């Protein structure tokens, strides 16, 4: 537990530093690097190694193109480059039919797509809410994603230890309970409300903050938190199901006591796109 707490504290400190530069390309680069590390964790989980280096090599430029597509030229290039990557993977399957397992390849490609979708959603929030017009709103929504995910995770852990009786998905994750899930839902909502209350207080003191939090925002927030909690559980269970089939305990060791990137961001995978969509259609008229 001590190692997990220290790692979490260091991680939060690094997160604060990265968010301090969110209006620069450094933020995009850091998220791109984290995304690529997560994809490599899937690459290794599927049993691929040095002999299949070309599969990961193809993912690197494609991921960077998507994550850093700030220019019109880059956005135009996404479609033809996607076609070339798909074509390349099909050729690899044909050429390596005796050694390249299609099931593992399909799992690698699908899971990688989910990861890119997740981290791109965070960058999309930044681009959708440019600093010049919306100030720190993008930071608020990025933190909201993390509060929904990690607030729910933390509450579910303690609620499960204290009250857990009925197994939620014993085949996939034997330690998760229905009571823990209920606690996680409450934790996600509470963390989101607390963050919003703090942001609202700051907006009153510093008018440069764009969004003006109103009662309707809290109503939307309650529903968002509840849905996000369920999505966080699904992301966690999905990642656990893959680990169970791959026969591994953790996706990596980058976070002592926590595992790899995916072990920390599994509950974020579906929450980040969800929040990005809600912001697009319910918070602003863009």
From TrEMBL:
Coiled coil: none annotated. The keyword Membrane applies. GO terms for molecular function: phosphatidate cytidylyltransferase activity. Keywords: Cell membrane, Lipid biosynthesis, Lipid metabolism, Membrane, Nucleotidyltransferase, Phospholipid biosynthesis, Phospholipid metabolism, Transferase, Transmembrane, Transmembrane helix. The keyword Cytoplasm does not apply. It is an enzyme of class 2 (transferase). Its EC number is 2.7.7.41. It is a multi-pass membrane protein. GO terms for biological process: CDP-diacylglycerol biosynthetic process. Its main location: membrane. The chain crosses the membrane at residues 53-70, 76-95, 107-126, 138-159, 180-199, 219-239, 265-283. It catalyses: a 1,2-diacyl-sn-glycero-3-phosphate + CTP + H(+) = a CDP-1,2-diacyl-sn-glycerol + diphosphate. It is found in: Cell membrane. Pathway: Phospholipid metabolism; CDP-diacylglycerol biosynthesis; CDP-diacylglycerol from sn-glycerol 3-phosphate: step 3/3; Lipid metabolism. InterPro entries: PC_trans. Belongs to the CDS family. This is Phosphatidate cytidylyltransferase. It comes from Candidatus Gemmiger excrementipullorum.
